[in-house]
Amino acid sequence: MIASLLIANRGEIACRIIRTARAMGIRTVAVYSDADAQALHVRQADEAVHIGPSPARESYLVGDKIITAARTTGAQAIHPGYGFLSENADFAQAVIDAGLIWVGATAHSIRAMGLKDAAKSLMQRAGVPTTPGYLGEDQSPERLAAEADAIGYPVLIKAVAGGGGKGMRKVDAPADFADALASCRREAASSFGNDAVLLEKWITNPRHIEVQVFGDTQGNIVHLFERDCSLQRRHQKVIEEAPAPGMDEATRDAICSAAVRAAQAVDYVGAGTIEFIADGSEGLRADRIWFMEMNTRLQVEHPVTEEITGVDLVEWQLRVASGEPLPKAQAELSINGWAMEARLYAEDPASGFLPSTGRLEQCYFPEDYVRMETGVEQGSVISPFYDPMIAKVITHADTRDNAAALMAQKLEGVAVWPVKSNAGFLHRCITDPDFRAANVTTGFIADHLDRLVPDAQPSSAILREAARQITQQSETGLAGMRGFRLNAAPERRVRLRLGADRFISTIPDAHEPDLYSSLAAPGVALVTDRGQSFGIAMDRTEGLSTGAASDGAVLSPMPGRIIAVSVADGDSVSKGQKLLTLEAMKMEHSLIAPFDGVVAELNAAEGGQVSEGALLARIDKAED
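^ thats the sequence. predicted structure below, dont judge the formating
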């Protein structure tokens, strides 16, 4: 058995691996960048090694630094977690060549499944059903456009080296193809160093079904049943569950058998996931489920499989990497109950899900009867350098309804401030009638967005609760006869502030039901309504303007890098026209004109780094 393990990752997955390794008596070594010097995973490990500056390309993506850290600390093995170098075949081979144990798929398997076009061809030969599309070597825009026409719109452009939703674009019409292709290639080149793409037919009522597989060095391969990951936003999974709703035993057997054949085709060792796209128009049917790709690593959503099978997949990884056979045979694995996972991110749904960075001054997770996987705690900093995940909330119950009800209950109590989170959005998703009825496709969020995104402004009930909390607990609270009126009930009113917005609230006598509240700071109430948190302060300043300095100011919503400038000084622009493209938190964000007008000021250049709130452009309104 491995005696010492270096985790080549950060955040919640590093903490997750450390927990299992410690339970197995394995010494752990963490690595960290400048930004993560005080991170939770660094403090939980037995030893930690600094590997470079905050940007991942200078630290977590530098394989030589990680191998050197393993050698220096005497670690026997390296676990890559997910993301970063977990599916980098060259790194996997370099670890082995250095005389270390690689806790993951072989370099051969990673290469075989790493390029989507080659993997699809391999699956076709192995008898695994695949979606119609184009896998050719001719990557000219003209040929790709012609193939898209032949497939029929809508089509999906996918980076052949992609993963995690990166380098994917749905195109609805021929007129949109060229722009979508250019954007997809740019993102693919930035994320994976490879801008080649393939085309697939877009499935009208798609469901994302994936199967957990596991192989050992003795040639044994099993599946651990399926997960449904259909609830997605921009190809990023939001809520996952296991098993898949509506899956009958015949269809389950067909898809899981196909997943095992896929793993056998590459002599797979370790934890892997075979992802399928299903046409849910007539329910789940074996003849309407097609292979999409294989992830040759542990998945973010692996806890739901652990919950329904009772298996610790990280423990299996460490045992298999140590040369042991799989702990269980296929006949010993079964499904018990239902599990769900919700990804809690530092992002603002009301502002187009822009990532939110900063210190978690308040961070509360209700952990009773629920599993939490996190790499942060109160006081931690959400930096702009990595994915803004705060935690994963996992519930397990006897039925799907009960798992969803428990998830909703726990999301209600999540309190995060001043960093914004998607907890309120997740609560709306999990309680939506269509979700509860399992009427979900990968387009569910886009189709229901208006009713899933919480209002950015606090309700009157929230304001009343904030006023009550502040005046009750503040040292300078309203007291005595303040608000007294002759021959009438006393009325107490307080001026409140949320950012630039100001409110007047009547203070009720009793706590507002269904709201969680506390004093986040002197004079600041933190009120949470079904997961959505508001930090509301008593306003002691008067006469301040609540408007922006200029209605035509286009400000950077977050720190990032300008990757495209689409206009020049003096250009006429139309409302909604793209002005700039900002790359931040591994995503592209288009900044658009607020109204028809002229570019009066432009302070952005391609390749330039900008800070949050920087004035990038100013639009003068067109004369009527």
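The first helix runs from residue 11 to 23.
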